[in-house]
Structures are given as C-alpha cells and as structure tokens.
Design brief:
One of its GO terms (biological process) is DNA-templated DNA replication. This protein is an alpha+beta fold and about 675 residues long. The protein has four domains: about 200 residues, Heat Shock Protein 90 (2-Layer Sandwich); about 160 residues, Ribosomal Protein S5, domain 2 (2-Layer Sandwich); about 160 residues, 3-Layer(aba) Sandwich (Rossmann fold), CATH 3.40.50; about 70 residues, no CATH class. The protein is built from 22 helices and 25 strands. The strands form five sheets. Strands 1, 2, 3, 4, 5, 6, 7, 8 and 9 form a nine-stranded mixed sheet that branches. A five-stranded mixed sheet has the order 10-11-14-12-13, with helices on both faces. It has a five-stranded mixed sheet with strand order 18-17-19-20-25, sandwiched between helices. Helix 4 packs antiparallel against helix 6, helix 4 runs parallel beside helix 7 and helix 13 packs across helix 20. The longest helix has about 35 residues. The protein is flat and about 90 Å long. The termini are far apart.
Amino acid sequence: MAEKDEKKAEKKPSYSAKDIYVLEGLEPVRKRPGMYIGSTGVDGLHHLIWEVVDNSIDEAMAGHAKHIRVELLPDNKVAVTDDGRGIPVEVHAQTKKSALETVLTTLHAGGKFGGESYKVSGGLHGVGVSVVCALSVWLRAEVSRDGGVYEQEYERGVPKTKVKKIGSSKSTGTKIIFQPDHTIFSETKFDLKRIVDHLRRQAFLTKGIAIEIIDSRGEVPVYHGFCFDGGLASFLRYLSRSEKSLLDNLFYVDKQQNDMGVEVAFVYNDEYESKELSFANNIYTPDGGMHMTGFRSALTRTLNEYARSNNLLKKEDDGFTGDDVREGLTVIVSVKLREPQFEGQTKARLGNTEARTAVESVVGESLKDFLERNSSDARRIIEKSLLAVKARKAAKAAKDMVLRKGVLEGLTLPGKLADCTSRSPEDSELFIVEGDSAGGSAKSGRDRRTQAILPLKGKILNVEKSRIDKMLINKEIKALVVAIGTAIAESFDISKLRYHKIIIMTDADVDGAHIRTLLLTLFYRYFREIIDAGHLYIAQPPLFKVQAGKSFRYVFNEGAKDKAIDELQALKKERQAASAKKKAKGEEVEVTDAENTEEVSLETGDGRMKGIFVQRYKGLGEMNPQQLWETTMDPEARVLKLVEVGDATEADRLFSVLMGETVEPRKKFIQAHALSVKNLDI
C-alpha cells in the first residue's frame, strides 16, 4: 500500500520555478501564432503579406514612398518592394545589433512608438514584419539606403547571416522576400484574387500611391496595377458601379483639421439600404467609431437645416432622423491621425473623440457648401429623405401591428410552425423548409425535443426590392419574424432569439436555390446580427442515393456518386468472391439482393447500373421521414454550412446586383458567369 502511494506521489506533476518557461525572442510567435495573425489558416497566411505591405504603406503615408510592388513567386515565396527610405542598417544602441536585425527579430521594435519618423501609421504595435520573419521558413531582407545595398537572411526568425553590403545604389527602399513555414500554416498557397482585392483597397485609401501585383507562379506572368489620384472619390465610384445614382455629383472632401486628415465621399442611389465604410490610418473599422459618429451627426443636422431653410420641411414636422437621411446612402469615411485608439484587439472600432469633432466639422461645412452649389442634387436628397420618413411611419404601423398581435395573443406562434419542446435556445433548432410536402416529412422525421419546423409556401418576397412596410404584410415573412422571436428593425433584440441554429433547408434544384437566396437576402438585410453571431446555417440534402442490395450511400455531388458506385461495386465483388468460396466448400450461401440485381445500363432510364441502383433526389419531399432524418437532420450524420460574411462590401454589392431593381448589372453578371454554371436544371 505504501509502495502504491509513493508511486502516485512520483507521478504527481510538479509546479516550481523550473516549470516556468520563458519564451525569448520570437518564440512566443511560433508557439502561439494565432495571437499575432488571427489564425494559421488562409486568413493568417495572407495576413503575412498585409503586415509587410502595411510597412510600405506607412512609408507612403509619411510621404517617403510612391511605388509598392508585390510579387508572387514559385515555391509559395512572396516579395514586397517599396521605394521608401529603407530600414536603417546601422548598429542599434540598445540591442547592440543592426537596426535591420532588431526590427526583424524583436517584437515591439520599430519607428512608430515615438519621434517624428511616422506621424501617421497603421501598424502601431510594431509586431508586423518580425512576426512574418518568425513564421517564415526563410526570409531575406534587402535594403537600399546611404548609397549601398544591404542584405540579411533568416530562418524561422533566426538570423542566418550578418548584415552585409552587397552593392551600391543611388535609390532607396526595402525588399522583403519570404516563404511561409509549411509546418505552421495549414495552407501555403496564396490566392491572387484576395491579394488584388486587398491591395486595390489600399491604393484607393492612399491617394497617388502606385501598387503593382505580379503573379509569376505560372508560365505566363499575370499583372495588376493600381494608382488612384481621386482617392475615396475613385473608391466610391468603384463601389457604386452596379447601382443607379440619384445625384449628378458625388460629395467629396479631403481636408486637414487639427492635425488630422479627414477624407469623406458619399453618393445616394435608388436602393433602400445604406452602405457605410470607415477607415482609420487605412485600417478598416467595421464597427465604425467616433469618425463615423461625427459623419452621421453632420449629415443629419446639415440636411435638416437645409430642408427647413428652403421650406422643404414643414414647421410642424419633427425633421429627419439619422435613418431617414441614410436611406440609399453609400459613404466612405477615412481619417488619418497620429495616435489612433482602437477598441478591441481586432481594431474594429475607433475610439478617439477628437476624430468625431474633426469629421463633424469638416463634413458639416463642406456639405452645406455642396448643397448650395448643387441645388438639384440637394432636392433629390431631401425628396428621398421625405420618402423615407413616410415609409418609416408606415413601417412602424405595420411592425406595431405584427408585434402587437403577438403580445395580445400571448406571443402565439404561427400555426404552421411545429415547435420543439425544448425552451433552451442553445439546444433548439429551427428548420425553414420549402413547401408542405417537405414540411410534412421534416415534421415526422425530426427530433421533437430540439427541432422545430417552419414550412414556407412558395417564394417569399424579395426584400431587396421592397420597403419594410410591404415586407411585414407578407404572411411568410411575418410568420418567420414571429417564430424567431427577435422582432425586426430598431426593435431587433438578438437576446430574444428562440433558436441558436436557424437552418435553411430547401431542395437541391433551381427553385430551391432561388428560395434560399431570397431567405439569405432577408437575413442579410434585416437579421445581420444573427449571421454575425453564427446562428444561420444551410442544410445540405443529398443529391443521390447509391444502393447495392442492403448497402447504400447518400452522396452530395457527381464526384461522390461515382466514388460510391466504385465502392459498392468493389463491395459486391468481395461478397461474390466470398460466396464462391463458400459454395466451393459446400457451405450454405445467403443470396443478397445485390447479387440478384440485373446489370442494366443507366441509359435505360430505370436507374440501375451494373447492379447498382442510383436515385437522384430532386426535392426533399421525395424522401420519406426516415431518409430525411438520416441524411439532412440527424446531428450525428448531417452536413451543415455555416453562413458567414467574408467581405461585407462585396456581399453587399452582390445582393444589390442579383436581387435589386436595376436589370443591367444583373444581366452583365449572368453573361460573365454563364460558362461557370454547374448542375443547372432545365
């Protein structure tokens, strides 16, 4: 007994000074890369490029660089070159190493923490290029400055050579070539489109900077080049290229206010939604912040003042709200300031109060002048805002009717909803199903404790073409709003969401895809927080059932179908071989359906192929409840796709193109993508 106790004591883990590990240099980055670049997936991989490019952009914003070149090279290498001042190479007094080595191998080392080197900078934490060095299997820095060209190489953050002069140069600049570490990243292949989209935006935000992208990975290099002297005005035209503008002139201002750069551009279109983009030192702030608050305040105040002074608003009217004046608005706000204060690790919101004051002052003054000089545009803006006021009042009445009905009936849920018995949102799922037939199968096959079914009759209203007052009259949308429990518009409250998994389950055909798109449009425009919180999913019903006797596979595409046929054919041959052995030994053999199946080609139309039965499901209603449960609803076996918004700007544009009023952009989109369509039902 004593021996056992001693052994237990020996196995007990120790916790003393020797168990405290100190990670030196760039070890923390390699140990926990996600803390520095967000992830080790595709997003984190591309973040390496952004970190290096950000340094070059900072040189451009400081007025020292005009050209940036990004080259995608074979073996997943990337080279980023700029014509800035070049990273210093002399010995650093504090580290006793060259400044170049210090910057590349030391966290929080750079010229952005004090002094006058960078008055405006996006990379304020000083971890950028050192993190790239740490997470690269190989990196080489080439610096041109002080009449010479200097070079140093690194492996996984460790210098492999000393800084050495390799030539002379009359120009200045920095070139960083790196190869991501395949032991860190799950994928090391760079996506050209993602890079082009990101660097195009940076070119818009940095007026006059020339950015080149060269993809040299294939036999023929692919080249992209950007340079926009128009700044945000050019950016706005690019974002609004698929929309019909209400104005003859877009609003644009670029001014310095209290040592802060303020650049704003906006235009109105004939849509109902507003699109707002904001940036601080070229960093995208998706949650806005003080700079966006300043813009909204100036816009609302100035338009109200103009409307009243020109007798376009009656004295007894309450005036425009912020939502009224932002209907159909597309705006970009960019500020460049010395000490940006971001809220949260992701820099999603700008917290500097002085940014609000600066933007409000600049926009208020410039907008007043714009309205006076462009009276026809001013009148169109006021007329659209007046229409928004009427729609708001009508929508409020319609919404109140919907919500009041729910309250008066004790929050009675729609009659067509087959609710689950669980009252825990975390455990509850809502399946939005197409049609009564599929709804019937889903209701019979579900887990009644956790799964609710809401069948929709036909195609719901396209909310991209309708205001909220018309939307809430639609019976199907009204039923959905009441079922999910969050209310809508300004009354939306995600804490009241009744199901933490909302699953769109439509047929795998053209009609099903259309209904799915209509529902996605509804959620994107009016329930975006549900998407952002990770509560919206798309079910993946199988396209085929492949069966040989008692063995079968449910598969989701043509390739999987062919693989399943091969697997079942191989299984059939194994069984036949085993039966032959038993027969040879005189043993009794059980004859299966698969072995008795007549081998007929699929072309005969009876769905049989070499003893394999292939059934294609055109709709969920073709499945019996058990099949629907096994393939699409069983949490242990189903496939769900989480709906996420990767690029909100592009998502917004595509919804406008595909679902909006204007036909021409949709026609062009269809023509451009016609050849890439697969599995189109005719």
